[in-house]
């Protein structure tokens, strides 16, 4: 039985694990976090992603967690309404809390797939018959194939393809996300204020008393992603200094939040998504940026496409990886164009 290792237990990793195990592979998933991640914004689904969820047998269950967003109100610097956006602008054809999707994907694979939490790949040695993998905590193991599904700053990609700087392209935006009390009384709806090079988006959906907040601003690089929380908060405060409306209390809520999360809008662009017996899937290989609205759908479709080509190739990984890339690249290119255009709309660049 072909033994495979998948790095990352968010969306692309467990989805790939599901399809590979179904097709007869012996699958191990390693995840740096100590347990299943219970955070993240709501995620949305578009197009062929529904076919993937249906094939996995979870579409109906995922639909049960629909946030039922009704739309977003646009406001000016004083909070006065200037327009409306339909729910589809942010929620796609279906939106669910990310934690619910992650739980579902883990549940349908946990009985068949080996999950190793609180560990990470530290080194890989590729040879003709497989890949020797060293871990930060666990013992060294041998695998036939290794897949990186570990995000924009993928450890697998760094080890097999080179430095992050060679693949990650900053789109000129960074931001913080967190949740707080729903003091503005939103009900399955959102508020969006866009002023020059800053944007505030807040919404309330599945938990009526909670407000999810995003504060984004123009940046020259993703360097803040690797800094500590104090420095990240200081950058947010500097970007929003002097802003009125809801900003003062949002900044205080940010400092008190226990689910503080900072990230930059980036894309991953590579000339190839595989190197020998190592391949990338999802954000690790071709992130289109959160501004594209396609991250989750792309992760699911990518995992489905990769697994399908492995099966149809009869286990010939070189043929499968080539076919996977040829099939998926046009879709990824379209999504990355959307990501760059949306980032530019909010004051970012178009690198």
From TrEMBL:
<keyword id="KW-0503">Monooxygenase</keyword>
<dbReference type="InterPro" id="IPR051704">
    <property type="entry name" value="FAD_aromatic-hydroxylase"/>
</dbReference>
<dbReference type="InterPro" id="IPR036188">
    <property type="entry name" value="FAD/NAD-bd_sf"/>
</dbReference>
<keyword id="KW-0560">Oxidoreductase</keyword>
<protein>
    <submittedName>
        <fullName>FAD-dependent monooxygenase</fullName>
    </submittedName>
</protein>
<feature type="domain" description="FAD-binding">
    <location>
        <begin position="2"/>
        <end position="332"/>
    </location>
</feature>
<dbReference type="GO" id="GO:0004497">
    <property type="term" value="F:monooxygenase activity"/>
</dbReference>
<dbReference type="Pfam" id="PF01494">
    <property type="entry name" value="FAD_binding_3"/>
</dbReference>
<dbReference type="InterPro" id="IPR002938">
    <property type="entry name" value="FAD-bd"/>
</dbReference>
């Amino acid at each position: 039985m072909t033994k495979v290792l998948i790095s990352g237990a968010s969306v692309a990793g467990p989805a790939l694990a599901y399809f590979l195990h179904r097709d007869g592979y012996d699958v191990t998933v390693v995840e740096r976090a100590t347990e299943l991640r219970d955070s993240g914004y709501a995620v949305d689904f578009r197009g062929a992603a529904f076919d993937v969820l249906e094939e996995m047998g979870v579409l109906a269950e995922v639909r049960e967690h629909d946030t039922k967003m009704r739309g977003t109100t646009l406001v000016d610097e004083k909070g006065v309404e200037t327009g409306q956006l339909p729910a589809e602008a942010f929620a796609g054809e279906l939106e669910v809390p990310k934690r619910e999707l992650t739980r579902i994907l883990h549940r349908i694979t946990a009985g068949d797939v080996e999950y190793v939490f609180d560990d990470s790949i530290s080194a890989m040695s590729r040879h003709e018959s497989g890949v020797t993998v060293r871990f930060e905590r666990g013992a060294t193991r041998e695998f036939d194939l290794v897949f990186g599904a570990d995000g924009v700053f993928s450890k697998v990609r760094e080890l097999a393809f080179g430095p992050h700087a060679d693949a990650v392209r900053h789109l000129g935006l960074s931001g913080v996300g967190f949740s707080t009390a729903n003091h503005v009384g939103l009900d399955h709806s959102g508020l969006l204020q866009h002023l020059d090079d800053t944007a505030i988006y807040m919404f309330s959906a599945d938990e009526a008393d909670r407000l999810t907040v995003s504060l984004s601003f123009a940046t020259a690089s993703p360097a803040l992603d690797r800094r500590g929380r104090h420095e990240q908060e200081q950058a947010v405060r500097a970007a929003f200094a002097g802003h009125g409306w809801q900003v003062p209390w949002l900044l205080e809520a940010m400092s008190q939040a226990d689910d503080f999360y900072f990230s930059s809008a980036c894309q991953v662009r590579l000339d190839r998504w595989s190197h020998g017996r190592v391949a990338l899937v999802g954000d690790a290989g071709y992130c289109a940026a959160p501004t594209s609205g396609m991250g989750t759908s792309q992760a699911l479709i990518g995992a489905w496409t990769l697994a399908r080509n492995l099966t149809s190739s009869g286990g010939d990984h070189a043929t499968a990886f080539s076919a996977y890339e040829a099939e998926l690249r046009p879709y990824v290119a379209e999504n990355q164009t959307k990501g760059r255009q949306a980032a530019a709309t909010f004051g970012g660049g178009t690198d």
